[in-house]
């Protein structure tokens, strides 16, 4: 029934309020999950509370609810009737009726999710509700805030520090904050911190999750949260403070509420157990996918009473660290005060004194037993200093609360064994998950980090990369992590398969996935998908970066085109093998590409700094980013990507300029070197394809282009010398022309053939010859058109035809010629992408059409017209030729840009002209059908009007009938306007005049001035950058004439014939590309890249220096210093610092006075004065020192058993009587001591007492779970051997051998221990140990123990000195501080070490117990195996060999025993 009500309400709300369909289904699914899995408690037995009925006159059940809200079943209870009511027996579970979203009225837009749950709801269901239904991310930290539920009075500075620190730690780590959820006490302070965060945060800051877990029965106005038929959704929750009485309001700043219901009303504390279970369950979940650590939890305490102390005690018993805020009052201040005392001084009297101070009003309510219990719990808390952190405002170590919280978690992790892993590794994982590099630097990466850096795990780097934690990536690299070893093939694939689904690159890669794979959902991004996308972004002029096939084969056939033009087939492995793992050829490049594709600015910068081929990497990144910017639909995102592309262009410029400054020749080699890592292309080609005009305009690049332009000629050769030598080539031999090198290859410049060859093959000479040739062509063309165009072609015209044919052949060569192995369509696309090639094709089309018409007698004249238009196009081709000129080039660029502006202007002008022309034609002329005159009236005449030619037909005064034709019969005259009966124009003159004025106003003034403004803007923009634009476009002309045949048209046909036979007949390729692309030998390339990396470091150093010297950085540094000074001066902390400095000054003055006193005494002893004048302050200081000495005297600390006094007896619900440390000895009077008697069913029913516990009181009497009263004897067998390397040698650390020991762990205790057990009289081995060992080991070890016992008896001592250890040694014999001990029963053990110096049959059998025994035992995870215990078949035992130098979580005193063994064998510990 409840589910149907919920469904109907959801459907009604969704469609009545216009909820989106997707959110409706999501809300519906959440409601279905809650109704099916979450229940509430309902009272089923009405027992009237007579006391309340008498005093208030209201019928109320003992559950706290009124009679009217009980169900019918509550009045017809079928169970046993009594006057007692209990929530466990008198309630039932029904589907919850309170969940969804609540809006807090009169409080802005505050809203929160909420749910009413039963007190026995499984915590896993609540966690699924939080993460799946409410879609909360799994936290990286769990902060449980506890303390006073009433109003807490804190100093303003402490309150601000609490709020600021809590918000900072939650935002930086992605933590969940759990409180009681009410609008009072510590929960109110947390809510106000959430409010301050919401007001100051930006959209980029994540929303803080504050979960309130409270009691449903104490929530005021809870009726508004219950779903009822017809109620509105979301729920409206009103807060009206002052009317709640004993109930509580929910805090309106929390984001989520879990309201725990046990069927009662008005009873506090119902949620405590469920909250503890949920926090414990969350703490067992893991962070992220690859971090592999549990979610750390921390308890933050403010104020509080007895319940808060219980919470702290239970949390620390569960290894949860606690942070106490000193100054928040009550329990927090009591603990903070005693935390500074040694444990021996924390007595009942001391605690009573502090309780009287901090609980002045309530102290009389505390009984003696309660104070004793408080003292015992506080003592136990102080025994766990690794779990206790006291935050003090005047403490310099923890200046901020967020640091104190995180450091508390790290401090607690140091005492925990994480499956054999080093604690620093666990701490580092936490720091990475929290994204707190400051924690990692100050607590983990210390001076001794170099000893640990080899243990950095790749998973940490991978997690930092995926989560975009660039600070940690840099930190790992600075501390020795090698990217070459980490970035294996599997790691790179993992990175690509963890892309954000909202990123552009993810959508592009999804398109590459095959349809069937995507349809079935069983797909993963592979490297061939990445390769295809990169080919699209970089351009098809590059070879694929990942030569991967879709098959599973690791080998593929690669076709390599050598520089000689020959095809070489080679079989190459796709991946290189390194340490047994597949890696790519350049893993750092792969990581850089991954970062660039996601536009991760900081991470890409860090990886780029690690790249070896950094210049090519920066230019390739610029190219990729510019292509991504074109594909990005979001304007802001596109602009951000474009800015990042410009940033990498600046990096490329900086590195190249640094290289060019040091060595010009090497820098030019970097430009034309073939980069194997970036698709066998060059840096110059990447810069050109990316349109990096600033880079190409750099002096080094232009120097290379100038060098190529002049060929082997000296670059300072004057133009007149070049022209003279072109016309009279013998002048070359006179020395008029100078060359850069005397000998080039096999050609000597001094020889006649060599000089002529290199002179005429220089691109500049080829260019000038082609200019002269083109001017001759135009002269011949004009001559034929104007002076000698006969009916039959004459020889000059035929020569013109041949000339055009040679030009056409050259265009065909440019179309098909090139080293890029593109198809015809791609070559055609590249060819037509250049505007001047389009002009060439257009000119050839005009010429071909003109010749075709010219050769036809009937169309001779039309052919001449077409040829004349073609001549215009040929003349425009001159513009491109003169682009190379430094003076004309920029002007030509300006003209080209202005032509684009004209096209936009003509569109606007055309709209206005046509609009006016059509209106004018319709008003003046009626039914004009001649298209020619329609065009004149609509377009031509309005266009001429703009330039001042006013038509007479617009004004009836100037009407002349002779200038027009009435019916349009005269084709040479326009049609007359409409006439009236008087023969005068009938159109309204005033209207036509107004139209003309408006038309001219917009056309002449607005549009023409707009055109002028556009031209001015274009001119200014190009003029500011005309130099770099010209330099960039200059490359195309230089490359064209560098690859151009030496002979100009029409003699170029000879070269075409030669090239045709060379390519088709001899199958050889032209070698003119060497100066634009050069492949270097491996040794030379490696040396060049090393030099480039060195130059990159210099560039980065200059960049950092420039940044530090910038005004912005100086202002920031000044602001930081002022902020530090303000923190020191303001508030109590600054006052305390000043007081400390004054005290130090007083101390110095006192010391000076004392020194003066010594001088006076010395002078008096020599007879120069009297010692009676000794300064009075000296004596006073002595008195103070004596008093301080007396205060510092500490009572010697006496060691008592601790585990035997744990309040809760293990494996039961029996609670011990609290015994403080000073009341443990039997000789100390303890009149209030009243222990319970507890006897588990593990021994005889009746047994006489056998003495008292020799270590004192335990808080429990009887046998407990032990077998006998009195001492229960046991034996612990410590089996050890040396840890060995793969070669058989013993592992050594810090000049000491590493010891290994055999350990077992039972499921019920979850702690590692030495094998052993209770020892019955006459037994050599315990029965439990026999159950673990086989028969062979039993016999061997029994024999060794028996032989060792005989030796010990003959030598008359039990323990061997550490200087002479033996294979069999007794390590300890005596009392064991065990949790099972009682006042009348305790455990005494004998610990024996059995050490195996060399491998023998016994050790071999022991190793077989652990089936996995690697040759080199790993230091991070012990090899473990499950064993069977024949004495207890149900027992689950895990055995493992562990290193003795690692922190092992051993039971009882086993840790101390292991340390004794390590010291005895002088092993590393």
Describe how the helices and strands are arranged.
Blueprint: H1 2-16, H2 21-37, E1 39-43, H3 50-56, E2 91-95, E3 99-104, E4 111-118, H4 123-133, E5 142-147, H5 156-173, E6 176-179, H6 185-200, E7 209-215, E8 235-237, E9 256-261, H7 272-283, E10 297-302, H8 306-317, E11 322-325, H9 330-338, H10 348-358, H11 368-382, E12 388-391, H12 401-413, H13 423-434, H14 437-443, H15 458-466, H16 470-478, H17 483-486, H18 489-496, H19 504-512, H20 515-520, H21 527-538, E13 555-561, E14 567-573, E15 576-578, E16 581-583, H22 587-597, H23 601-610, H24 614-631, H25 635-662, H26 664-672, H27 683-689, H28 693-696, H29 699-710, H30 719-727, E17 743-744, E18 747-748, H31 752-760, H32 763-787, H33 795-816, H34 824-832, H35 835-854, H36 860-881, H37 888-924, H38 931-946, H39 989-1042, H40 1052-1065, H41 1082-1108, H42 1111-1129, H43 1131-1165, H44 1176-1192, E19 1236-1239, E20 1260-1264, E21 1270-1282, E22 1292-1293, E23 1296-1297, E24 1299-1306, E25 1312-1313, E26 1316-1318, H45 1327-1332, H46 1335-1355, E27 1368-1376, E28 1385-1396, H47 1401-1409, E29 1424-1427, E30 1437-1443, H48 1454-1464
Parallel strand pairs: 3-8, 4-9, 5-6, 5-10, 6-7, 7-9, 10-11, 11-12, 19-20, 21-28
Antiparallel strand pairs: 1-2, 3-4, 13-14, 15-16, 17-18, 21-24, 21-26, 22-23, 24-25, 24-30, 27-28, 29-30
Helix pairs in contact: 1-2, 2-4, 4-7, 5-6, 5-12, 8-11, 9-10, 19-21, 22-23, 22-24, 24-25, 24-27, 25-26, 25-41, 29-39, 32-33, 32-36, 35-36, 37-38, 37-39, 42-43
């Amino acid at each position: 029934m409840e589910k149907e009500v919920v469904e109907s309400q959801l459907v009604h709300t969704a469609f009545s309020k216009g909820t989106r369909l997707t959110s409706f289904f999501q809300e519906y699914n959440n409601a279905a999950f809650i109704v099916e899995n979450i229940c509430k408690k309902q009272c089923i037995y009405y027992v009237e509370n007579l006391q309340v009925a008498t005093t208030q006159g209201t019928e109320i059940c003992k559950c706290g609810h009124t009679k009217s809200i009980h169900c019918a079943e509550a009045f017809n209870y079928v169970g046993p009737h009594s006057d007692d009511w209990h929530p466990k027996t008198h309630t039932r579970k029904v589907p919850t009726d309170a969940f969804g979203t609540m809006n807090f009225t009169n409080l802005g837009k505050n809203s929160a999710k909420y749910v009413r749950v039963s007190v026995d709801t499984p915590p896993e269901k609540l966690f699924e509700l939080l993460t799946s239904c409410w879609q909360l991310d799994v936290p990286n930290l769990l902060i449980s805030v506890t303390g006073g539920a009433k109003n807490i009075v804190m100093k303003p500075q402490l309150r601000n520090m609490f709020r600021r620190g809590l918000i900072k730690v939650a935002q930086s780590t992605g933590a969940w904050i759990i409180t009681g959820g009410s609008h009072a006490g510590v929960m109110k302070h947390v809510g106000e911190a959430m409010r301050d965060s919401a007001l100051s945060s930006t959209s980029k800051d994540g929303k803080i999750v504050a979960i309130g877990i409270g009691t449903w029965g104490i929530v005021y106005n809870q009726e508004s949260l219950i779903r009822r038929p017809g109620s509105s959704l979301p729920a409206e929750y009103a807060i009206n403070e002052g009317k709640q009485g004993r109930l509580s309001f929910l805090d309106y700043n929390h984001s989520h509420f879990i309201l725990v219901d046990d069927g009662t009303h008005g009873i506090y504390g119902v949620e405590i157990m469920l909250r503890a279970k949920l926090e414990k369950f969350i703490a067992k979940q893991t962070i992220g996918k690859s971090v592999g650590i549990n979610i750390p939890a921390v308890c933050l305490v403010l104020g509080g009473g007895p319940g808060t102390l219980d919470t702290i005690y239970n949390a620390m018993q569960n290894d949860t660290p606690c942070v106490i805020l000193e100054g928040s009052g009550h329990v927090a201040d009591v603990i903070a005060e005693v935390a500074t005392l040694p444990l021996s001084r924390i007595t009942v009297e001391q605690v009573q004194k502090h309780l009287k101070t901090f609980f002045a009003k309530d102290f009389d309510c505390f009984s003696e037993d309660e104070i004793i219990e408080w003292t015992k719990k506080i003592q136990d808390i102080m025994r766990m200093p690794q779990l206790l952190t006291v935050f003090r405002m005047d403490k310099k170590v923890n200046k901020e609360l967020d640091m104190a919280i995180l450091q508390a978690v790290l401090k607690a992790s140091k005492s925990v064994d994480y499956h054999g892993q080093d604690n620093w590794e666990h701490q580092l994982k936490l720091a990475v998950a929290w994204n707190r590099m400051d924690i990692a630097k100050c607590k983990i990466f210390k001076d001794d980090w170099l000893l640990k850096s080899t243990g950095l795990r790749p998973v940490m780097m991978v997690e930092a990369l995926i989560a975009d934690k660039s600070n940690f990536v840099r930190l790992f690299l600075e501390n020795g992590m090698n990217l070459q070893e980490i970035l294996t093939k599997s790691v790179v694939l993992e990175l690509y398969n963890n892309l954000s689904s909202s990123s552009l690159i993810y959508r592009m890669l999804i398109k590459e996935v095959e349809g069937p794979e995507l349809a079935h959902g069983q797909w993963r991004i592979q490297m061939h998908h990445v390769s295809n996308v990169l080919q699209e972004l970089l351009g098809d002029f590059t070879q694929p970066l990942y030569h991967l096939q879709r098959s599973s084969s690791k080998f593929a056939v690669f076709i390599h085109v050598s520089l000689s033009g020959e095809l070489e087939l080679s079989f190459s492995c796709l991946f290189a093998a390194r340490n047994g793992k597949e890696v790519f050829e350049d893993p750092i490049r792969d990581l850089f590409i991954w970062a660039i594709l996601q536009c991760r600015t900081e991470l890409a910068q860090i990886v780029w700094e690690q790249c070896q081929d950094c210049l090519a990497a920066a230019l390739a990144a610029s190219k990729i980013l510019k292509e991504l910017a074109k594909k990005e639909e979001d304007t802001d995102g596109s602009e951000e990507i474009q800015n990042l592309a410009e940033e990498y262009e600046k990096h490329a410029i900086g590195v190249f300029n640094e290289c060019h400054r040091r060595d010009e020749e090497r820098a030019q080699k970097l430009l034309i070197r073939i980069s194997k890592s970036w698709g066998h292309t060059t840096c110059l080609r990447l810069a050109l394809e990316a349109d990096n005009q600033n880079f190409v305009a750099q002096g080094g690049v232009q120097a290379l282009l100038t060098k190529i332009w002049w060929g082997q000629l000296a670059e300072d050769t004057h133009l007149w010398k070049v022209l003279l030598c072109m016309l009279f080539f013998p002048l070359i031999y006179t020395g008029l022309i100078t060359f850069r090198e005397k000998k080039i290859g096999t050609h000597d410049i001094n020889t006649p053939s060599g000089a002529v060859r290199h002179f005429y093959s220089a691109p500049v000479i080829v260019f000038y010859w082609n200019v002269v040739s083109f001017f001759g062509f135009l002269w011949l063309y004009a001559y034929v058109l104007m002076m000698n165009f006969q009916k039959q072609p004459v020889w000059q015209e035929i020569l013109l035809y041949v000339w055009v044919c040679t030009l056409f052949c050259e265009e065909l060569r440019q179309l098909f010629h090139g080293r890029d192995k593109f198809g015809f369509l791609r070559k055609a696309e590249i060819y037509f992408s250049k505007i001047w090639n389009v002009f060439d094709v257009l000119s050839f089309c005009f010429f071909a059409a003109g010749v075709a018409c010219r050769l036809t007698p009937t169309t001779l004249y039309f052919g001449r017209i077409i040829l004349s238009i073609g001549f215009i196009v040929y003349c425009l081709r001159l513009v491109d030729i003169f682009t190379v000129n430094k003076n004309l080039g920029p002007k030509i660029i300006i003209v080209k840009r202005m032509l684009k502006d004209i096209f936009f202007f003509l569109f606007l002008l055309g709209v206005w002209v046509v609009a006016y022309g059509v209106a004018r034609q319709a008003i003046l002329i009626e039914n004009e059908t001649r298209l020619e005159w329609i065009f004149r009236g609509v377009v031509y005449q309005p266009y001429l009007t703009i330039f001042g030619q006013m038509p007479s037909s617009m004004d009836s005064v100037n009407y002349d009938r002779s200038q027009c034709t009435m019916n349009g019969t005269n084709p040479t005259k326009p049609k007359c306007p409409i006439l009236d009966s008087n023969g005068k124009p009938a159109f309204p003159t005033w209207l036509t005049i107004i139209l003309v004025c408006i038309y001219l106003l917009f056309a002449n003034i607005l549009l023409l001035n707009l055109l002028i403004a556009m031209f001015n803007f274009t001119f200014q923009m190009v003029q500011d950058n005309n130099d770099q634009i010209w330099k960039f476009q200059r490359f195309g002309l230089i490359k064209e004439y560098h690859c151009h045949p030496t002979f100009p048209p029409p003699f170029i046909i000879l070269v075409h014939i030669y090239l045709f036979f060379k390519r088709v007949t001899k199958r050889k390729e032209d070698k003119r590309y060497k100066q634009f692309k050069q492949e270097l030998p491996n040794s030379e390339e490696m040396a060049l890249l090393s030099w480039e990396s060195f130059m990159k470091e210099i560039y980065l150093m200059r960049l950092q220096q420039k940044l530090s010297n910038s005004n912005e950085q100086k202002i920031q540094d000044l602001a930081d210093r002022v902020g530090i000074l303000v923190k020191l001066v303001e508030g109590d902390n600054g006052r305390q610092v000043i007081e400390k400095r004054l005290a130090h000054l007083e101390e110095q003055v006192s010391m000076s006075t004392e020194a003066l006193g010594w001088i006076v005494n010395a002078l008096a002893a020599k007879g120069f004065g009297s010692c009676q004048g000794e300064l009075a302050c000296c004596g006073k200081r002595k008195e103070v020192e004596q008093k301080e000495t007396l205060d510092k005297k500490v009572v010697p600390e006496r060691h008592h058993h601790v585990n035997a006094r744990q309040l809760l007896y293990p494996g039961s619900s029996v609670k011990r009587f609290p015994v403080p440390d000073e009341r443990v000895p039997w000789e100390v009077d303890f009149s209030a001591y009243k222990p319970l008697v507890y006897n588990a069913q593990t021994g005889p029913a009746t047994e006489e007492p056998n003495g008292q516990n020799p270590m004192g009181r335990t808080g429990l009497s009887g046998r407990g779970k032990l077998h006998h009263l009195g001492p229960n004897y046991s034996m612990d067998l410590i089996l050890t051997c040396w840890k060995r390397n793969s070669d058989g040698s013993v592992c050594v650390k810090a000049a000491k051998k590493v010891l290994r020991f055999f350990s077992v762990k039972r499921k019920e205790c979850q702690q590692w221990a030495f094998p052993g057990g209770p020892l019955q009289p006459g037994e050599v081995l315990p029965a439990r140990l026999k159950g673990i060992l086989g028969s062979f080991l039993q016999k061997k070890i029994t024999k060794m123990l028996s032989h060792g016992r005989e030796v010990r008896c003959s030598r008359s001592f039990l323990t061997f000195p550490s200087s002479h250890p033996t294979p069999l040694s007794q390590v300890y014999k005596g009392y064991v501080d065990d949790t099972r001990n009682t006042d009348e029963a305790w455990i005494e053990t004998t610990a024996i070490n059995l050490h195996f110096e060399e491998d023998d049959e016994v050790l071999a059998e022991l190793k077989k117990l652990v089936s996995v025994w690697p040759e080199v035992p790993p230091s991070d995870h012990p090899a473990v195996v499950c064993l069977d215990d024949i004495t207890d078949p149900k027992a689950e035992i895990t055995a493992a060999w562990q290193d003795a130098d690692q922190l092992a979580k051993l039971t009882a005193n086993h840790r101390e025993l292991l340390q004794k063994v390590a010291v005895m064998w002088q092993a590393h510990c």
